[in-house]
Amino acid sequence: MKAVYFAWVRERIGKAEEEIDPPAEVVTVADLIGWLSRRDEGYAHAFENPRTIRAALDRAHVKPDAALAGAREVAFFPPMTGG
Amino acid sequence: MEIRVQREDFVASEEALALTRSRADVGAVVTFVGLCRDEGGKLAALEIEHYPGMAEAEIALVVEEARQRWPLLGLRVIHRYGRLAPGDQIVMVATASSHRGAAFAAAEFLMDYMKTRAPFWKRARGVDGAVQGWVEAKDADDASAARWRAP
Questions:
Q1: Chain A residues with CB inside 8 Å of B143's CB?
Q2: DSSP chain B
Q3: Please, which pLDDT band fits residue A60 given cuts at 50, 70 and 90?
Q4: Domain boundaries, chain A
Q5: Chain A residue closest to B47 (CA)?
Q6: pTM score of the predicted model
Q7: A81 touches chain B (CB under 8 A)
Q8: Domain contains B73
């Protein structure tokens, strides 16, 4: 699946998007955050405080317990500050 | 019901006029424009990042909810992205209805919901060229959005 990152999540990870292929035991958005966090310091820094991370699946907001099943695009970003 | 996410500036009065052109049933138009403040002379620019595709989709959901809550005859939402200087326009909402109550309420609802749901992020640049960092989400914005929810 495609993963996209925005704002300081993108800066800490060091890339705007990438293809990821999580193993079968990664079922939910929270699982994916855990799996990505173990990749390197950048990911760990980006996801160090789960309270400040928002996620979207196929461009719709989701909670951490949402299942990844079938989603083509996952996004991680800080709380929105538009308007 | 027009939604635009764009780099370019806009002319709010023209957008509002478009809501009443060649019709006579509109009794009220409310236009809100959000601008980039200079924060007491300390801010040089705001850089606004967005999630293309999702930004439009989330605004569309908020617009749909507004249409279900109030009898709107027309509506426009424009949100800019990119580098904006103090005094520049950032966002615009225009609502048209038969009566002012619905137009005022829908405009405020759209802004409150858009701030907490639409995927935009602001980064501040200081006058000395230094990055001041990403603007943090405010609890006050969540509270403003929450008051529209049924008790």
A1: none
A2: -EEEEESS---HHHHHHHTTTT-S---EEEEEEEE---TTTTEEEEEEEE-TTHHHHHHHHHHHHHHHHS-EEEEEEEEE-EEE-TT-EEEEEEEEESSHHHHHHHHHHHHHHHHHHS-EEEEEEETTS-EEEEPPPPHHHHHHHHTTS--
A3: very high
A4: 2-77
A5: A7
A6: 0.93
A7: yes
A8: yes
